[in-house]
């Protein structure tokens, strides 16, 4: 039995409706994206010092206090229990 013979009439109608409702897919890109990418890079220049941006007051204020408390607990735990470092590395 061929695949076309096993398809029921409602399935054929559904397939026909889908074919009519969806436009054909154009797999070729109609434009070059590189000029747009260069424009975006020029609009938003990269900050020269990423560490300063990471530790800026705005970045620090965006982190909740609970995350800082968890980080402090991790640092204290690693300092007190230095043999646990391989376990932490395994889990992260």
What features would you describe in this structure?
By secondary structure, the protein is mainly α. The protein has helices at residues 3-6, 9-21, 34-43, 50-54, 57-61, 65-80, 85-91. It has a domain at 62-92. The longest helix is centred in the last third of the chain and has 16 residues, at 65-80.
Q: What general form does the structure show?
A: elongated
Kindly state the percentage of residues in helix: 55-70%
State the end-to-end CA separation: 55 Å
Number of strands: 0
Specify the number of helices. Answer: 7
Which structural class is indicated by helix and strand composition? mainly alpha
- If you average the pLDDT, what whole number results? 83
Q: What is the gyration radius calculated from CA atoms?
A: 29 Å
H-E order: HHHHHHH
Sheet-strand content, in percent, reads under 5%
Write a brief structural summary.
The chain is mainly alpha-helical and 92 residues long.
List keywords for this structure.
7 helices, 92 residues, mainly alpha
Helices and strands, with pairings:
Blueprint: H1 3-6, H2 9-21, H3 34-43, H4 50-54, H5 57-61, H6 65-80, H7 85-91
């Amino acid at each position: 039995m061929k695949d076309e013979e096993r398809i029921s009439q409602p399935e054929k109608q559904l397939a026909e409706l889908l074919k009519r409702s969806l436009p054909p897919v154009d797999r070729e890109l109609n434009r070059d994206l590189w000029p747009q990418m260069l424009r975006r890079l020029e609009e938003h220049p990269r900050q020269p010092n990423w560490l300063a941006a990471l530790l800026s007051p705005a970045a620090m204020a965006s982190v909740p206090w609970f995350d800082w408390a968890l980080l402090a607990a991790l640092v204290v735990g690693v300092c007190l229990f230095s043999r646990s470092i391989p376990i932490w590395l395994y889990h992260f």
